From TrEMBL:
<dbReference type="GO" id="GO:0004518">
    <property type="term" value="F:nuclease activity"/>
</dbReference>
<dbReference type="InterPro" id="IPR045249">
    <property type="entry name" value="HARBI1-like"/>
</dbReference>
<dbReference type="Pfam" id="PF13359">
    <property type="entry name" value="DDE_Tnp_4"/>
</dbReference>
<feature type="domain" description="DDE Tnp4">
    <location>
        <begin position="158"/>
        <end position="324"/>
    </location>
</feature>
<dbReference type="GO" id="GO:0005634">
    <property type="term" value="C:nucleus"/>
</dbReference>
<dbReference type="GO" id="GO:0016787">
    <property type="term" value="F:hydrolase activity"/>
</dbReference>
<dbReference type="InterPro" id="IPR027806">
    <property type="entry name" value="HARBI1_dom"/>
</dbReference>
<protein>
    <recommendedName>
        <fullName>DDE Tnp4 domain-containing protein</fullName>
    </recommendedName>
</protein>
<keyword id="KW-0378">Hydrolase</keyword>
<keyword id="KW-0479">Metal-binding</keyword>
<keyword id="KW-0539">Nucleus</keyword>
<keyword id="KW-0540">Nuclease</keyword>
<dbReference type="GO" id="GO:0046872">
    <property type="term" value="F:metal ion binding"/>
</dbReference>
<comment type="similarity">
    <text>Belongs to the HARBI1 family.</text>
</comment>
Length: 394
């Protein structure tokens, strides 16, 4: 089996469709070398640690770590319709053994789950091909953030929330979050009119730190610079060219295309930093507003959702689509409405992600800070806002 695995890796390397397939396959096979059965068992243990709600969910998570949907769409279980045979691959044996170890299922159950996954690979691969064009088209329409919320080169505001649910049966601690409740995570990009331009639903509530954003489809594309983002543009009133960015709170990492506030310790006695944080918070507030409107319109979010996990993701997506449908009218969010939003019981904030930021990302943030404090980029009320509540010490 070990020699067969090595041959398959060599074949994938020579016939790979793209670099991602090579990287994903090597990450699980080459890392362990698979020179003996002990290493093969280590690979089984690593895959088994991914967990899942059921056998199919486990197979889905495991295969996403090993090979891409685009590569997998070249296979069928028995090699029908001109595709290659997946059943005889030792990768199949690896998945079946891991599924048996993780879910306690039978060989037949694991094979049925793999067949179901293979049938859906082609559709998922097509959806992945669309994600760049569709997301970029939607986000490019969000340039009204500049005119309405005074943040140039801003494509959308990003935010994530825990959608609280009752503990699903036989789920262990998968859904148990840092606030000691059970949830799934909704990650959303929001435009200037509080419409969701892209959402990622279904991450387990236990996900924390880099797992929430970095493991989402959109997050991976942003952090790897694979998202089709418009070219850097000159800021209004000056010759400074800066990249287009998303804005988020301190829960998200700082990146060339993702701006977050300065930490609190840098705000002490530094009015320029406070002004930047105010301008960024003013722009990203649309995401908080969108979640507030979502909760007010769909009262299911004001309590714990008692829905089967397999249907919960669809319910959340449906409410997001209906929210956008209802937002497509002439009655948009106004700044005065912000204070009327009630903190819902069914939605909670995600924990901070943090992580090391690159020098380039810090430079982009500093450039925005300098621009917001310059005559060309400032707004008349920003100084008053950051000084509000500050005591005059003589």
């Amino acid at each position: 089996m070990v020699s067969q695995l090595q041959q398959e890796v060599a074949e994938i390397k020579s016939n790979r469709r793209d670099v991602d397939d090579l990287v994903e396959v090597e990450s699980i096979f080459i890392r362990y070398k698979l020179r003996n059965m002990e290493d093969f068992n280590k690979a089984i243990l690593e895959i088994a640690a991914l967990g899942g709600r059921n056998t199919y969910d486990f197979i889905f998570r495991a295969t996403q770590k090993i090979i891409s949907n685009k590569f997998s769409s070249n296979f069928s279980w028995l090699g029908r319709k001109g595709k290659r045979v997946f059943k005889d691959l030792s990768l199949s044996s690896l998945l079946i053994n891991a599924a048996i170890k993780t879910k306690g299922c039978t060989i037949k159950d694991a094979e049925i789950a793999i067949q179901k996954w293979l049938r859906r690979c082609n559709k998922r691969a097509k959806n992945e091909n669309k994600i760049n064009s569709s997301i970029s088209e939607l986000l490019q329409r969000s340039t009204s953030l500049e005119s309405l919320w005074n943040f140039p080169n801003c494509l959308a505001a990003i935010d994530g929330k825990h959608v609280i649910t009752d503990k699903p049966p036989n789920s262990g601690s998968l859904y148990f979050n840092y606030k000691k409740s059970f949830s799934v995570i909704l990650l959303a990009f929001v435009d200037a009119h509080c419409r969701f331009t892209a959402v990622d639903v279904g991450a387990y509530g236990r996900s924390s730190d880099g797992g929430v954003f970095a493991n989402s489809t959109i997050g991976k594309k942003i952090l790897s610079n694979a998202l089709d983002i418009p070219e850097p543009k000159t800021l209004p009133g000056c010759n400074l060219r800066l990249p287009h960015v998303f804005v988020g709170d301190e829960a998200f990492p700082l990146h060339n295309n993702l701006m977050r506030p300065y930490p609190g310790r840098q705000c002490l006695n530094n009015e320029e930093v406070k002004i930047y944080n105010y301008r960024l918070s003013r722009a990203r507030r649309v995401s908080e507003n969108a979640f507030g409107i979502l909760v007010k319109r769909f009262r299911i979010y004001q309590r714990h959702l008692q829905i089967d996990p397999d249907k919960l993701d669809k319910v959340i997506l449906a409410t997001c689509c209906l929210h956008n449908f209802l937002r497509n009218d002439t009655c948009h969010w106004t700044e005065e409405q912000h204070e009327t939003i009630v903190r819902p019981e069914g939605i909670e904030n995600i924990p901070g992600i943090g992580g090391a930021s690159t020098t380039n990302a810090m430079g982009v943030r500093d450039s925005f800070k300098n621009y917001f404090n310059s005559p060309n980029g400032s707004v008349s009320w920003q100084t008053e806002m950051v000084r509000r509540g500050k005591r005059n010490v003589t």
